[in-house]
Amino acid sequence: MTDSPTFELAYKAARQRYSDLGVDTDAALQRLGTIPVSIHCWQGDDVGGFEGLTDDIGGGLAVTGSYPGKARTPDELRSDFEKALSLIPGTHRLNLHASYAETGGRNVERNELGPEHFQGWIDWAKDRGVGIDFNPTYFAHPRADDGFTLSHPDDGIRQFWIEHGIACRRIGAAIGAALGSPCVTNVWVPDGMKDLTVDRRRPRERLAAALDEVFAETLAPACQLDAVECKLFGIGSESYVVGSHEFYLGYAITRQKLLCLDAGHFHPTEVISDKISAVMQYLDRLLLHVSRGVRWDSDHVVILSDELQAIAQEIVRGDYLDRVHIGLDFFDASINRVAAWVIGTRAMLKALLLALLAPIDLLRQFENDGDFTSRLVMMEEQKSFPFGAVWDYYCLKSGVPVGTDWLNEVRLYEKDVLLLRSSASAPG
Ligand code: RNT
Ligand code: ZN
Predict the structure, then answer these.
(1) Sequence-distant (≥ 6) Cβ neighbours of residue 385 within 8 angstroms
(2) Who's near 208: CB < 8 A, 6+ residues apart?
(3) Dihedral of CA 82/85/90/94: which sign?
(4) Chain center to CA of 214
(5) Residue 161 designated active-site
(6) pLDDT score, position 261
(7) Which residues of the chain have a pLDDT value below 70?
(8) Of 349, 336, 335, 251, which Cα lies nearest the Cα of 303?
(9) In this predicted structure, what is the pLDDT of residue 1?
(10) 188 annotated active-site
(11) Measured between alpha carbons, how far is 420 from 68 in angstroms, rounded to an integer?
């Protein structure tokens, strides 16, 4: 087994290699430690939530796999999430959906939800020093069954969903106030059509008007920030999505909202990394749903892919770390769910570290000089720089397992906790 002094030694050598390129590894690690990743609660229970309204999550979302041990209660979910946090370096946030309300067994309509239904989450977060972000839930509900919510042609149904949005912003504000850190409340609606539609205009007019009602109340940005998330298509909304990219880009700019870019919500060869510096010309803040689409918006667990590295590079190189909120959005039920959180979040942090370690001054100089040969050589050579030694050292210093050691802890947790969860032992 590699011991701590060996990791320290490896780091020392790596620090020297990087400093030869003008890169300060200590500064990079210090910066990395200040970047929160908003980790989505819904990887822990296959986007189930605790309302029990439907078996099907709807909304054109699909979670595949039946790995044992999914969280069935808020306490189980919090315990699993804490296990994941203990294996991830840094201080991060929880991204919560309205469908994870704790109503004490009572049926509370979504338009009647209040901060009191999230007190358990708030107390827990306060205790552990994590921030919370929030999302109204516009799916997994009988009134979302026909695929329309905020743009629904029926006034009553539309009004119900408007009230849900209003309620969720107030919950977000209460969360932000309680935790002393702004809660980003992100609106995503599934609204769209499976087949060709003859009226693309009116649903969009209704959506814009409904959103204006949702956002009518002024809430302190120190507590609550609004985001809107676009999408290209979903299952059952292949031909038309009301809240498309152009729709929400225009909405976010004109209403001064955050735009949410989900990595899986564009054409398969389109990447969000290239969109960051474009939309940031016009927006104050951006929210990312870092995901991994495989052929479609499949929400695979995030890995250290080229695109993930490009996303991190764009955030770092554009100097956007204080204006871009990094959230994760994936759900895979075919592997251990705690491991999925750890894999995805560690990958995100690795990508950020790689970006922080790039000899960007040198690369910029090559580019400005028109020396594209040196630029390409440096980009390639830096790939085999001892990044791993810096990452290992960061994990060591952060008090989390180095390398694959974290999996042993997940395996133990699986044996002692997750595998004991079966339908027979469902808590009352
Ligand atoms: C759906 C959106 C949305 C959801 C979550 C659960 O395509 O990406 O962000 O994944 O709200
Ligand atoms: Zn998303």
Answers:
(1) 14, 17, 18, 21, 357
(2) 247, 251
(3) negative
(4) 22
(5) no
(6) 99
(7) 423-428
(8) 349
(9) 76
(10) yes
(11) 9
Residue 329 known to be catalytic:
yes
Q: Which atom of ligand 1 is nearest to the CA of 329?
A: 10
Tokens found for residue 8: 């320290």
Q: Return the pLDDT at 245.
A: 98
What is the reported pLDDT for 297? 95
Pocket test for ligand 1, best of 262, 266, 299 (most atoms within 8 A of CB): 262
Q: How far apart are CA 264 and CA 294, in angstroms?
A: 8
Spatial separation of the C-alpha atoms in residues 134 and 311, rounded to whole Å: 23
User: SS in 3 state form for 189-253?
Assistant: CCCEECCCCCCCHHHHHHHHHHHHHHCCCCCCCCCEEEEEECCCCCCCCCCEECCCHHHHHHHHH
What spacing in Å lies between the alpha carbon of 381 and ligand 1's midpoint?
Answer: 37
How many CA atoms lie within 13 Å of 35's alpha carbon, on the beta-carbon side? 29
Cα–Cα distances in angstroms (integers) from residue 56 to residues 59, 175, 267, 313, 427, in the given order: 9, 28, 26, 38, 21
| Cα gap 250→2, rounded to integer Å | 53
Q: What span, in angstroms and rounded, lies between the C-alpha atoms of 239 and 233?
A: 7
Ligand number nearest CA of 59 is 1
The confidence score (pLDDT) of residue 124 equals 98
What tokens were used for 363?
Answer: 């690369």
Query: Looking at the chain, how many residues does it have?
Result: 428
Give the pLDDT score at 217: 98
- Ligand 1 closest atom vs CA 229: 9
Interval between CA 299 and ligand 2 midpoint (Å):
9
Q: State pLDDT tens for residues 76-115.
A: 999 999 999 999 999 999 999 999 999 999 999 999 999 9
Q: Say if residues 263 and 275 touch (Cβ distance below 8 Å).
A: no
Helices (H), 96-139: 119-128
Are the beta carbons of 156 and 195 closer than 8 angstroms? no
How many CB atoms are located within 10 Å of the residue 252 CB?
A: 25
Ordered domains of the chain (ranges, CATH): 37-357 (3.20.20.150)
Number of alpha carbons in the 13 Å side-chain half-sphere of residue 42: 27
pTM as predicted = 0.98
